[in-house]
Design a protein that fits this description.
single chain, alpha+beta, about 350 residues, 12 helices
């Protein structure tokens, strides 16, 4: 009915992977969940250049309802555009967190993101090296290191030979593959001087390979792995054909986002800044939170976290699942939120406190 409804309907359909969405269709009834909600809100913010909290989508999960909410006066975000680079580029909030954890723990594999691909057919290691270099050259975040000056880290974006990722090539047998994969996944990056991406090509037979890419979380996340894979395939195909990849330049890089975010959040010393208000909110919300959960366990808590864990698989029947879905819809939440509440209630019953 309005241009805004048309835009929102298109964004709903895009995020949900549907051909079309009606104005009164609920985002969550159509298969939306917490992660897709976050992605949708991000797309709405970028497209309409307006502040939209995720809460709005839960309160108005339809195109018509959300369009009505957005008709109210909203703060306008500064546009994310290429920015002039200062001599020392600061870190984003996410980078600061991971840098701090890296410094606290020391080089470790805790925040490594490994991805293994089994390849069948002829693979040319030198072509793969060129393709990896193309991808790292395209994405500044993959060639950024984090040196310190007077205890404060900054982003240093490398170029040229310094930005060539390492590709180790080795011939192994299938019996030793698990051990080789685990060894690659445990590679300890030195974020102050080393690219946050590394690759291994294990040859199992004349035309049987496993390619392992390990990226540190400071340069990547779950959403990043799909474009990373696509770009590597594009670059390899081009290099195998004797040419450089023909892709359009990226409109912005992560460093541009970092500068944009720092401008948006403001200075902590300014009590009226967005970052100060958010910090004050969380200080108040988390006041008196216990240092650790007092929970009955079957073994003593170790002094240092071992980072070892287990995966337990289970299933439930269709009736139980439908009941969870119905409860989520009735309460304006998601199935994940219902499960989280159930887990919190169980832990409370077992003595973990509030």
């Amino acid at each position: 009915r309005t241009p805004r409804e048309e835009i929102l309907a298109g964004l709903f359909a895009e995020v949900l992977g549907l051909p079309a969405v009606g104005t009164d269709d609920s985002f969550f009834d159509l298969g939306g969940h917490s992660l897709l909600a976050t992605r949708l809100i991000s797309r709405i913010r970028a497209t309409l250049n307006t502040e939209v909290p995720v809460r709005d989508l839960f309160e108005a999960p339809t195109v018509a309802g959300l369009a009505t909410l957005l008709d109210e006066d909203r703060a306008v975000r500064p546009a994310l555009t290429p920015a002039a680079r200062p001599e020392r580029i600061p870190l984003s909030s996410a980078q600061n967190r991971l840098w701090f954890l890296h410094r606290l723990e020391g080089p470790s594999a805790t925040y490594n993101m490994p991805m293994a691909l089994r390849l069948t057919g002829p693979v040319m290691p030198e072509v793969l090296r060129l393709a990896l270099a193309d991808v790292v050259g395209r994405h500044e975040s993959l060639r950024t290191v984090f040196p310190e000056t007077d205890g404060t880290p900054h982003q240093q974006i490398l170029a040229g030979v310094e930005a060539r990722p390492v590709l180790e090539v080795a011939g192994i047998t299938e019996d030793h593959l698990d051990e080789a994969l685990a060894g690659a996944a445990r590679y300890p990056f030195d974020l102050s001087a080393e690219l946050p991406v590394r690759a291994w090509l294990f040859q199992l037979a004349p035309q049987e390979y496993v390619l392992v890419l390990v990226v540190h979380h400071i340069a990547s996340d779950g959403w990043s792995l799909a474009p990373l894979s696509r770009d590597l395939v594009t670059a390899y195909a081009a290099r195998a054909d004797g040419r450089t990849p023909d892709w359009a330049p990226l409109p912005v890089q992560y460093a541009d986002y970092t500068l944009w975010q720092n401008e948006l959040l403001g200075d902590q010393s300014d009590t009226g800044s967005l970052i100060s208000r958010q910090l004050e909110y969380w200080r108040t919300t988390l006041t008196n939170l216990p240092e650790q959960v007092t929970f009955p366990t079957d073994r003593p808590r170790p002094v240092m976290a071992s980072q070892r864990g287990e995966v337990f698989e289970f299933s439930w029947d269709a009736d139980l699942h439908q009941g969870l879905v119905d409860l989520a819809r009735a309460t304006g939440t998601t199935v994940f939120m219902v499960l989280q509440a159930g887990l919190a209630a169980l832990m409370n019953r077992l003595g973990a406190g509030d």
